Amino acid sequence: MAYSFYELVWFFFIYSFVGWCGEVCLAAIQKRRFINRGFVSSPFCPIYGIGAVSFAVFLPELSENLFFLFLGGFILASFIEFVTGVLLEKIFHKKWWDYSKIRFNFEGYICLRYSLLWGIFAVLLILFANPFLQTVIHMLPELLGKILLWILSALLVVDCIGTGLTILGMQKKMLQVSEWSEEIGKISKLLENAITEKIRKRMVKAFPALEERKAEKKETAETKVFAQGCSFYKLVGLFFIGAFLGDVTETIFCFVTTDVLMSRSSVVYGPFSIVWGLGCMLLTAVLYRIKDKSDSYIFVAGTLLGGAYEYICSVFTELVFGTVFWDYSGFMFNLGGRINLLYCFFWGIAAVVWMKFLYPVLSKWIEKLPVKAGTILCNIAIVFMIFNCIISSLALSRYTERNTNGDIGQKTETESGLDEFLDTHFDDERMERIYPNAKIVE
């Protein structure tokens, strides 16, 4: 079942509120007092809303098989929880939750106990809760519903900004900060008033770990190494290298296995595979902290992360472009034709090879760039890829439109100048050469 954007936004707020209620009740039982456990001050836990919306978008096609539906929820929720935990720690320099003391955990971000619960929740949401809520949502006048959603969205955005600035203000004296975080600290200082002080006290009460870390000596000297550590520009450089190497690898693999030389690029300009590029960024950002762990440890992490990532990419491209770029239905142990066990193992192997062999070498190469030249080069590359992705998206959408209406090749009165440009420069022949395996779906 496909849900409308209007329904998904309602799902986000409803499940964010339900998740907040669950967190508050759990904290009340454990601490014997009321504690707002949400990231924001309002009665919402956005991670629950994001998880529920992800279930509604990515899992309905698995509803005919309870085991696959449970497995999909298990993997997808673990992926979201892990990535969210890593990002929050990366931004705020502290773990917001820690499952290290629970058996079968991974780096304290996820654990088997709660991932199993997420799998059960996925089944309940898809089969029972979402259809019920869908009926309830449409009992509300649509205009009133949209007004309420706009108000809730605006309040949540303001709440998130205020909370984020307050926490950064709390952390600025405890961490080694960059110029960027210093500027954020200045903004936070200007906004420091009764509201932010109240937020600060609430956050310390809900998450004591935010003030546990002792103050560290601030670095005053500017770094002389470009993209040192797992920094933004390091990830940008790895994205382009991974996108290029991924395209070349897939091209060679297809040629060896099918004896056909075909394009494996994701964009219309240049040999770049966006899935591989983003995968390299994701693997590096997530697995950087465990790069010194054993090969088997990294293999398992890469297998799970890679499988979840590929599944999400497959559903995303189908929803946005109406096109399926790969189909594993003919493979054993596949999940909706989007991923299969064999290729998930390939992700695990790739994670080991990447973190143990390729990343250390590529990281040193990137860091050898002069700081100023490297910054300019990365910024130009970012602009180029954004433009490339926009043009590619428009060309794919126009290609899908040409091949799904009844007047293919005929000019219509509603055709715009952009449509003419896309039809001229990205006709069916060129698009099918760039994307030979693309299949148009409803």
Number of strands: 6
Measured distance between first and last alpha carbons: 13 Å
How many domains, as an integer?
2
Main pleated sheet: 2 strands, antiparallel
**Secondary structure tally, helices:** 14
Oligomer description: single chain
Order of helices and strands: HHHEEHHHHHHHEEEHHHHE
- Look at the helices and sheets and give the structural class: mainly alpha
- The chain-level mean pLDDT equals 82
Instruction: Give the DSSP E fraction (strand runs of 2 or more residues).
Output: under 5%
Helix content: 55-70%
Shape: globular
Major beta sheet, strand line-up: 1-2
Can you tell me the residue ranges where pLDDT is under 50 for at least 5 consecutive residues? Answer: 173-181, 183-188, 213-222
Determine Rg (CA atoms, Å): 24 Å
Give a structural overview:
The strands form 3 sheets. A two-stranded antiparallel ribbon has the order 1-2. It folds into 2 domains: 5-211, no CATH class; 232-440, no CATH class. It has 442 residues and is mainly α. The chain has helices at residues 5-31, 46-58, 66-92, 112-137, 142-171, 179-190, 194-206, 232-258, 274-287, 295-321, 341-367, 371-402, 417-425, 428-434; strands spanning 105-106, 110-111, 323-324, 334-335, 339-340, 439-440. The protein is globular.
